[in-house]
Write a structure and sequence with these properties.
heterodimer; A: 73% helix; B: alpha/beta; four-stranded antiparallel beta sheet; 10 helices
């Protein structure tokens, strides 16, 4: 049935899933303490097992949640704002979440990670809504202005965060939320990032609604879909996923911007068809970046944000060059084309 | 569909002023008039895209605002020119959205058949898997009409369907409108700028001036020299071709 509607091939999805499985497995055995499958299975090295369960598996799960969550948050934001440059980074969501974390550190220090996440939820949602309300009020002629406004807005919020953290001497504590890293992830302190999972499931359920709202208000009303409600709900889901990630691993930029753009280039904008691919590619992207961050200066580790920044900007420039050359033409791997190449 | 005493104000300015009319079922009705006469606003209100300030719109003997949005989407379809054209959807995916009010995205075999038929009716089979943003304006417009056909509504409202189309595609579009009415039995309501398309392809015409209904009647009743000169404030000549009153203005 699915095949009939989209006429698409599953080979890419299967390939990504396999690659992700292999890399995930490999990532469990990368680290300062050498752990091998033999040692684990023999059950003799208790220390190895502990590290495996306390650090390695939580880290992998956090990476998968982050990659899936951030890329799907970006995809929904891009659809609903009808702009391909909008993402949690360029839509002020990440900086709003950081402000929320700071506020909770200052005013609710006893609340711990729960207070932090709750506060980040509230500010991320509010920040995103303000941004979208603003871009809807002012119709921009040029699509690039929308993310520029978002970046400016994000920097203003970032400025407030910076000022407040100096005032309350919180700069040290805040730094781990400003630059994303999976290094501190151990069992007991990262589980909140799982909140991204039910939100991603919601995104899958309402995929068609987001698609229809992305076609415009008139289009949505014609099909009996409440545009405002879906816009509201979709942005809230994106902001909450982002807040959950930021309050556990810190800011992970580029993923929400780049991954949806790369996937829709191959798959088109039909969300039902590209959500799985977006989740897989997002996880692959974050996982590979984390593996590089962990291995490049062993036994030390680079913040993943640095690797994602470098890799992401190269990919992004590539994407822009492709757009300049071919416009919005999609890349398609169809059987027909392969035959004609022969 | 019956409209009475419809009023809409924007920032104190009355753009639609006590408009009343009754739309004949199973016919093509065109709303015409100069820019800013309120025809598109009226279209927006009778399709629930724009909220009315006061007045009454009754659709199948029920107040329009009392309709459940999804139920209404099975009875009345509206196509405007404000769709996001950047979206990378294939023609088939777009047409499939027409079934959304019925099956909410989970298409049944019956839905697939209806989609197939709508695509065939608009002769889009060869574009079925092309992205809509890679099509020409005329092809894209046909894809939207196919979606509306898949939506299977009794009423079809089209806001300036010939906008941005060249003469060939415009007259094709108007022929499609005629077929929607004659072959599929739809009630079609259009907002049109070109009076001659309205005169040639509609059954009824509703002419607006300054937010009011100036004339409403059959094509022959409305398209007269006196009426048009009054409505548009320009001299008109009427000639008859194929027994239709066509207007010449300069």
């Amino acid at each position: 049935m699915m095949k009939k509607i989209t006429g698409r091939e599953w080979s890419g999805t299967v390939l990504m899933a396999l690659l992700l499985a292999v890399l995930s497995f490999a990532s469990l055995f990368v680290g300062v303490t050498g752990i091998t499958l033999d040692v684990l299975l023999s059950g003799q090295d208790e220390m190895a097992l502990k590290i495996f369960l306390l650090a390695r598996i939580p880290r992998l799960l956090a990476i998968l949640c982050t990659g899936t969550g951030m890329s799907i948050a970006g995809l929904i934001m891009q659809q609903l704002c009808m702009n391909r440059f909008v993402s949690p980074t360029t839509g002020a969501t990440i900086s709003s979440a950081q402000l929320g974390i700071l506020l909770s550190l200052v005013f609710l220090p006893g609340m711990g990670i729960w207070g932090r996440t709750l506060s980040a939820f509230l500010t991320a949602v509010a920040g995103t809504w303000i941004f979208v309300w603003f871009i809807r009020r002012i119709p921009f002629q040029n699509a690039v202005l929308v993310p520029l406004v978002g970046i400016m807005f994000g920097n203003i919020i970032g400025g407030i965060t910076g000022f407040l953290s100096y005032r309350f001497e919180m700069t040290q504590q805040m730094s781990s939320f400003l630059i994303g890293s999976f290094a501190p992830v151990i069992r007991g302190n990262y589980e909140l990032v799982w909140l991204a999972a039910p939100l991603v499931i919601l995104a899958f359920i309402y995929a068609d609604h987001f698609n229809i709202a992305g076609m415009g208000e008139d289009f949505a009303s014609n099909l009996g879909v409440s545009y405002c409600l879906i816009l509201f709900a979709g942005l809230t889901i994106s902001a909450m996923i982002t807040a959950a990630v930021v309050s556990v691993v810190g800011s992970i930029s580029y993923v929400g911007l780049l991954v949806p753009n790369m996937v829709t280039l191959f798959r088109g904008d039909r969300l039902r068809g590209c959500l799985t691919d977006t989740a897989l590619f997002g996880s692959l992207f974050v996982l590979s970046a984390d593996l590089i961050a962990r291995t490049v200066i062993m036994p030390y580790e680079l913040p993943i944000e640095l690797i994602i920044g470098i890799g992401g900007s190269i990919l992004f420039i590539g994407l822009l060059l492709y757009r300049l050359k071919y416009g919005r033409k999609a890349i398609r791997f169809t059987r027909k084309e392969t035959i004609s190449c022969d | 569909m019956k409209v009475s005493d419809l009023i809409k104000k924007y920032e104190g300015k009355t753009v639609v002023d006590s408009v009343s009319f009754q739309l004949p079922k199973g016919k093509v009705t065109s709303l015409i008039g100069p820019n800013g006469a309120g025809k598109s606003t009226v279209m927006g209100m009778i399709s629930r895209l724009i909220a009315k300030d006061s007045g009454m719109i009754s659709f199948e003997d029920r107040d329009l605002s009392g309709w459940n949005s999804r139920e209404l989407a099975k009875k009345l379809a509206i196509l405007t020119q404000h769709n996001n054209v950047q979206m990378k959807l294939t023609v088939r995916e777009l047409v499939a959205f027409g079934r959304f009010p019925y099956s909410g995205g989970r298409l049944t075999e019956e839905d697939e058949t209806i989609i197939d038929r709508a695509i065939a009716y608009m002769e889009l089979e060869s574009f079925e898997h092309r992205f809509i943003d890679e099509l020409s304006g005329g092809q894209r417009q046909r894809a939207y009409i196919a979606m509306v056909i898949a939506q299977d509504t009794e009423y079809i409202l089209l806001d300036e369907p010939t906008n941005n189309l060249d003469i060939y595609h415009s007259s094709n579009m108007m022929k499609i409108v005629r077929r929607l009415c004659d072959e599929l039995g739809k009630t079609v309501i259009l907002v049109l700028h070109e009076i001659n398309y309205a005169a040639f392809y509609s059954d009824y015409i509703c002419a607006f001036v300054n937010g009011k209904v100036a004339k409403f009647g059959t094509v022959d009743e409305v398209i007269t020299r006196e009426n048009l000169s009054q409505i548009y404030n320009v001299d008109f000549e009427i000639i008859r071709i194929n027994d239709k009153p066509l207007s010449v203005y300069y």
